[in-house]
Amino acid sequence: VDGPNLHAMSKALGIEVDFKRLIALFRAKARLVRALYYSPVIEDQECSAIRPLLDWLAYNGFAVVSKPVK
Predict the structure, then answer these.
(1) What is the model's pTM?
(2) Terminal-to-terminal C-alpha distance of the chain
(3) Is 67:50 a contact under the CB 8 Å cutoff?
(4) What is the largest CA-CA distance in the chain?
(5) Which site among 5, 21, 29, 54 is 20 to 30 Å from 68 CA-CA?
(6) Which residues have a Cβ under 8 Å from the Cβ of 1 and sit 6 or more positions away?
């Protein structure tokens, strides 16, 4: 999952993504090898608005891949 693009799309459509249902749907429809969530992070910001989401995703089956914002 490309985090910034998914966020922009859901905001534009006025919907909220249920990640628990999303991963369950993937598991029901196919053999899920891994679920990756890509997100940029600001290095010098220890407490960011996205951190709780990334922690929740990591706890609930997603492998979070983050890179510093350029």
Answers:
(1) 0.81
(2) 20
(3) no
(4) 40
(5) 21
(6) 22, 35, 36, 37, 38, 62
> Which pair of structure tokens corresponds to residue 46?
């220890």
Q: How far apart are CA 59 and CA 11, in angstroms?
A: 24
8-46 confidence digits (pLDDT tens): 999 999 999 999 999 999 999 999 999 999 998 877 766
CA atoms of 70 and 68, how far apart (whole Å): 6
Tokens of 63: 């492998």
Kindly report the backbone phi and psi dihedral angles of residue 61, in degrees, each rounded to the nearest multiple of 5, phi listed first. Answer: 105, -5
